[in-house]
Write a structure and sequence with these properties.
Helix content is 38%, strand content 21%. The two termini are 16 Å apart. The chain has one domain: Alpha-Beta Barrel (TIM Barrel). It has 219 residues and is an alpha/beta fold. It has an eight-stranded parallel β-sheet with strand order 1-2-3-6-7-8-9-10. InterPro entries: Metal_Hydrolase, TatD-like. GO terms for molecular function: hydrolase activity, acting on ester bonds; metal ion binding. Keywords: Metal-binding.
């Protein structure tokens, strides 16, 4: 079994299983050796929620929860809160909570998109008290914000752009690497992150490999 080294991308990897590919429920078409996350993104809440009663997969209608239970789906998301999105924040919070609670039911981690809504996210985490990991994807904030998230038990995933000091302070067990929408090969992102953290590249690879195994594959 191939363990993905890229936990969040919107592109099909050259090697099947190398990355967790993010999909909308209505576009989820799993490949035999691929890994996926499925969620309702805050940018597309209106259209996604309107069709959330059911999606067609393998010629039969499946409800959102069924999609999340698919064996090739490793995570719920990306779910999120985004104050720049068109959907009202109150609706975004309802949809986020719905997905966060489903993540608990299906026993899978939650991948989070967050823009200018830190307080709202922390309030929801306090309300829901999740057992499954919550992962902030594409983290670009300063070290102080990283520390705040870490205090509340979040994991942080870093893509192509980020504050170097924030990357340095994340404990190894809370760290992930992703490409998101970047076309930069994930291997180059690992090389840069290892250099910034001043550790051997293979040590970083092993750390992320272990984290992915514990968070995404331990049921």
């Amino acid at each position: 079994m191939r363990i993905p080294v890229d936990i969040h991308t919107h592109q099909q990897p050259q090697v099947p299983g190398e990355a967790i590919v993010n999909c909308f429920p209505e576009t989820f078409v799993p490949q035999a050796e691929g890994w996926y996350s499925v969620g309702i993104h805050p940018w597309y809440i209106t259209s996604s929620v309107a069709s959330a009663v059911g999606f067609v997969l393998n010629n039969r209608t499946m409800h959102f929860e069924e999609l999340l239970r698919h064996p090739r789906v490793l995570a719920v998301g990306e779910a999120g809160l985004d104050k720049l999105a068109e959907a009202p924040l109150t609706l975004q919070m309802e949809v986020f909570e719905y997905q966060a609670r489903l993540a608990e039911e299906v026993d899978k981690p939650l991948i989070i998109h967050l823009v200018r809504a830190v307080d709202e996210l922390l309030k929801l985490k306090l309300k829901i008290r999740p057992v499954k990991p919550w992962i902030i994807h594409g983290f670009r904030g300063k070290a102080a914000l990283a520390e705040e998230y870490l205090r509340h038990g979040f994991y942080l995933s870093f893509g192509e752009k980020y504050q170097e000091e924030a990357l340095r302070i994340v404990p190894p067990k809370r760290l992930f690497i992703e490409t998101d929408e970047s076309t930069t090969p994930v291997g180059l992102l690992y090389e840069r992150a290892a250099e910034i953290r001043e550790i051997p590249l293979e040590e970083l690879r092993e750390t992320i490999r272990r984290n992915v195994g514990e968070i995404f594959f331990r049921q």
